Amino acid sequence: MLMVDSLSVRLVTGAHCAVVDVNGGFFVRPNIVAILLRIPYSRYTTNETVRSTTGCLPVSDRVKSFCLRFFGHLARWAPEEDHHRVIAAALRPPTDWRRPVGRPPTTWLRAIDEDVQPQNIGVHTAWRKARDRDTWQQVVSTATRC
Q: Measuring CA to CA, which of 61, 78, 118, 125 is 20 to 30 A from 14?
């Protein structure tokens, strides 16, 4: 977080874009990070260099963190809630069910499964672990470096 003339600037993607919070509104300004860091336009600077200078994480890690935290949020809801029942039913699909033709093969639950696989956790184990907030926060922080 950088403070510039009472504007809080949240860095999003590195050298090409930032989100500026002005009285609760968010505006995208191109190249603002390079301007704030006083990097000349003519000097080639990679996003990795800017991230190491500012301490930002890649956007992919932030998105992964949001998805995993939302998964935990759904798991902790009461079992009679509709959104909890939808995810619980998706974890146990009928044996003869197939995705319709033309639909992408990757689902949201498969993405969650891929995110927790490096920790040797499947999506079913993640569903059980997500019910305990402290345990799930450790899983999310390990998976995303956030």
A: 118
